[in-house]
């Protein structure tokens, strides 16, 4: 998003501008949280917590042009923290799955289930790259990794997905 009304010389983003930026980005933030928890209420709770953290820490954002990277990092970390705190088994429902796609849409169901089985950073790099269409350099900033480490995680995660999807094939 364009940070209209923000000059590079300003110290930080004010709360009013932060609210506008979050309003524009709220659906994307919800979608990321939902990928992790697969529950509407939990995803909304995560977004609410992440927005609260953003308001508390907005002064720490040194370069406002990296707002999307910064807020994405907060939502990913909030999602992971939520899962750890709740020590939940993530349920992939029969009626509604990832992104609200029902089980009748089998074209991508195996892929979503395979991504869901990935753990930690492997899952996160796939979600950010292929579901959120972020660039490697942005993923590296969010995860505080080098670009080469992100590429290594992505390569390994894609190999894990290939193995999972191949094992699921019916050989007749």
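Sequence proposed for the structure above (172 residues):
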């Amino acid at each position: 998003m364009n940070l209209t009304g923000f000059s590079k010389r300003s110290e930080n983003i004010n709360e009013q501008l932060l609210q506008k930026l979050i309003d524009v980005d709220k659906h994307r933030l919800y979608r990321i949280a939902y990928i992790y928890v697969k529950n509407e209420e939990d995803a909304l709770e995560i977004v609410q917590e992440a927005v609260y953290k953003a308001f508390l820490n907005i002064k720490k954002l040194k370069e406002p042009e990296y707002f999307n990277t910064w807020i994405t990092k907060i939502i990913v970390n909030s999602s992971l923290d939520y899962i750890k705190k709740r020590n939940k088994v993530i349920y992939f429902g029969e009626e509604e799955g990832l992104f609200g796609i029902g089980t009748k849409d089998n074209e991508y169901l195996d892929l979503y289930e395979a991504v869901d089985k990935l753990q930690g950073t492997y899952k996160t790099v796939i979600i950010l790259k292929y579901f959120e269409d972020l660039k490697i350099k942005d993923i590296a900033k969010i995860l505080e990794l080098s670009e080469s480490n992100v590429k290594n995680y992505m390569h390994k995660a894609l190999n894990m997905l290939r193995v999972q999807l191949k094992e699921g094939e019916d050989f007749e």
